[in-house]
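Hey,
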Amino acid sequence: MSDLVPRDDGGLMDGAVNRDCFGGAIEPRRAHMPAAYVGGGLGFLALAGRLALLSAAALALKEGLWSLKHRMERDAKHADDLAEMCAAAEVEPGFTALIHEAGRALRAVADASAELADAADEMEVSARDTRAAHESEYRGVYEAVNSSGVRQAKPGFYRSN
């Protein structure tokens, strides 16, 4: 990626961004990509731990989304009740319509959060299944390597073409 950005006169300049040439809408900046892995390495235990964290995070997300769904449904019912009371009190119909619209919007949020909660549930189940498969596939290898007491070659040393 180049550090060159457009100037007001149509040319390119090096370094600082001239914000006026973008009209304030877009500001280019360097992409900072994360390292392939941070700490912990890519070993058996690190991967198992990351899969456990993913599973726990997906479960927490799912529970939060179901809570949001129930709250939005409750708030939508309160909006409908308020709209009915406003209609009974002969409040301006435009205001009553706005309250009904708010209730519909709250129900839409409830429906969307339920769909997202289902996706989070699938992610949690997949992460658990992946962790179980990883455990059953590589636990024996991990135990054998660590119980031998002999220093092992670097990964890829025994690979054949």
